[in-house]
Amino acid sequence: MTNGPADEEDDLPKDSHGQVSESAGGMSRRGFVAGAGLLGLTIPFHSGMPAALASDDALAGKDGLTLLNDWPVNAETPAHLLDDAITPTARHFIRNNGLPPEEVDAAAWTLTVDGLVESPATFSISELRAQFEVVTLALVIECGGNGRAFFDPPVRGEQWTMGAVACSEWTGVRLADVLQRTGVRPGAVYTAHYSADTHPSGEEGRLPISRGVPIAKAMTDNVLVAFAMNGGPLHRHNGAPLRLVVPGWPGSCSQKWLRRIQLRDIVHDGPKMTGKSYRVPRYSVAPGDKVPTEDFEIIERMPVKSLVTSPENGAGAAREVEVRGHAWSGDRTVSAVDLSIDFGKSWMAAELDGPVNPGAWQNWRRSIAFPEAGYYEVWARATDSAGEMQPFAIDWNPKGYLNNTMHRAALRVA
Ligand SMILES: Nc1nc2c(c(=O)[nH]1)N[C@H]1C(S)=C(S)[C@@H](COP(=O)(O)O)O[C@H]1N2
Ligand SMILES: [Mo]
Question: 9 falls in which pLDDT band (50, 70, 90)?
């Protein structure tokens, strides 16, 4: 079964309530998320996903992911499967705007760096390995649309709940080292990333996505051109054999199946850079407001956020449990994670680790004794090094980006 590409620039048909009428898995998209937006729990898709939808090999090599769309393949990870400090490859979410290249030959793959550089160059993966320092870093990739499913009124696009985020260990070379080798010409302001995936329309030469970042971001020393993931090859859907990893910024900056980086003298204007893609209004808008495209700006750093990965949302729990999860904040560090089990009336600090390296998420935990049996929600609220805290309510925007509201995990305490 096919849902069709969810091109974030295309106007999909809407029903009379202004909701997306495109179906997912035979149900309306709202059907999937009904209730989830109210409580942040009972997300029925995992158990509710029709078996036929997951029966083909779209998710081969993945473990427990929830398929949101099978063409292109888009799949998220239930929060409790993100419990590991380092996300296993099998649990790294998949966000495809197009169709991955069918057959890739890592030995023949090349990366070309050109545009406003002193000396354009083309590198094979073995040349990258041989000519630059190889580094391994734990880095968060989070889709700009993670949490979109909770927007009210709803917005179109993939209906991510909590799980379009991961922190795998990436091995590669620093983009900064590669750019230092080719030289950056004065006047270069932005990168432009090109890749080998194809547009779902099948139109010759039409790119599914080509994003870029300001040169200063590209020169940050945790931005990698990565050829290994968790000590093994990249998964086919995570960009094999070569991708960018740009931690702290929308996942869309981390171009998969990377073939070319061009330096430009203007802000890159490739597909999904302009219009309303990965852009938000410069000011707060009322939920449902129409906003002129010229009032949108490119999303840069991702906001402070946290995830409760244990116990599992909706599970039963003993009277005393260890609650744990991760927290991250764009280019910053997280300075505190606070927990509430009484709907925000009172808060207690979690024990919080530092990041293993800049760009990694931070693990936190706390043992909690529930006062009596019953229904609880564990709320987690991270605060970052700039004092920014996760909000209660979504700062609504037309494309459903940047939802960093607190994660609320429901528990039945025996
Ligand atoms: N070539 C290419 N790169 C891409 C994409 C894509 O569709 N094509 N999707 C982007 C988006 S929107 C995100 S959130 C991340 C997701 O990375 P993942 O699929 O490995 O989790 O890849 C980015 N890189
Ligand atoms: Mo994304």
Answer: very low
- Indicate the Cα dihedral angle 121, 125, 128, 130, nearest 10°: -130
In the chain, pLDDT over 90 holds for what percent of residues?
Answer: 86
Judge whether 389 lies within some domain: yes
Atom of ligand 1 nearest to the CA of 251: 14
pLDDT tens digit string along 27-59? 333 333 333 333 444 433 334 444 444 445 889
Q: Three-class SS of residue 260?
A: strand
Give yes or no for a contact between 225 and 178, defined as CB atoms under 8 angstroms apart: yes
- Structure confidence at residue 57 (pLDDT): 83
- Residue 15 pLDDT exceeds 70: no
Ligand 2 centroid–CA 10 distance in Å is: 16
**Residue 359: which domain range?**
305-413
| Whether residue 377 has its Cβ less than 6 Å from ligand 1 | no
Structure pTM?
Answer: 0.89
Q: What are the distances in angstroms from CA 183 to CA 226, 251, 398?
A: 20, 26, 39
CA-proximal residue: ligand 1, atom 5 (nearest):
96
Q: Are 337 and 327 in contact (CB under 8 A)?
A: yes
> Does the beta carbon of 303 lie inside 6 Å of ligand 1?
no
pLDDT for 25 beyond 70: no
Cα separation of 135 and 214, whole Å?
A: 22
> Does ligand 1 have an atom closer than 6 angstroms to the CB of 92?
yes
Give the nearest ligand 1 atom to 235 CA. 20
Q: Is 257 in the pocket of ligand 1 (CB under 6 A)?
A: yes
The full DSSP string for 25-77 is: TTEEHHHHHTTHHHHS---THHHHS-HHHHSSGGGTT--SPEEEEETTEEEE-
251 close to ligand 1 (CB < 6 Angstrom): yes
- In this prediction, residue 56 carries a pLDDT of 55
Indicate which residue's Cα is closest to atom 19 of ligand 1.
94
Q: How many domains does the chain have?
A: 2
Residue 41 lies inside a defined structural domain of this protein: no
Average pLDDT value for the chain: 89
Q: Pick from 298, 331, 356: which residue ends a domain?
A: 298
CA–centroid distance, 254 to ligand 2, in Å, is 9
Mean pLDDT of 360-371: 97
Is the pLDDT reported for residue 351 higher than 50?
yes
Q: What one-letter code names the amino acid at 163?
A: G
Assign residue 402 the CATH number of its domain. 2.60.40.650
Judge residue 232's burial from the number of C-beta atoms within 10 Å of its C-beta, 0-12 exposed, 13-18 middle, 19 or more buried: exposed
